[in-house]
Design goal:
The chain is an all-alpha fold. 87% of the residues lie in helices and 0% in strands.
Length: 61
């Protein structure tokens, strides 16, 4: 998955979480599930961009 795709998924998840939370609460099971998915996507994005940064630095040497 590309960084752009992950960012799109992050935004979709964030919007879904906020919508669900506005209808119930932040401790609702469905909100927590979406929040966990969002956390996972953010971690994927961090790892991907970190690895891309390492590759960019290696190319400059």
């Amino acid at each position: 998955m590309s960084t752009e795709q992950i960012l799109d998924h992050i935004e979709q998840c964030r919007q879904k979480m906020m919508f669900l939370a506005s209808r119930s609460s932040m401790v609702d099971n469905e909100v927590i599930e979406v929040s966990s998915k969002l956390d996972s996507l953010i971690i994927q994005y961090i790892h991907l961009t970190k690895n891309e940064g390492l590759m960019d630095r290696r190319a400059l040497k």
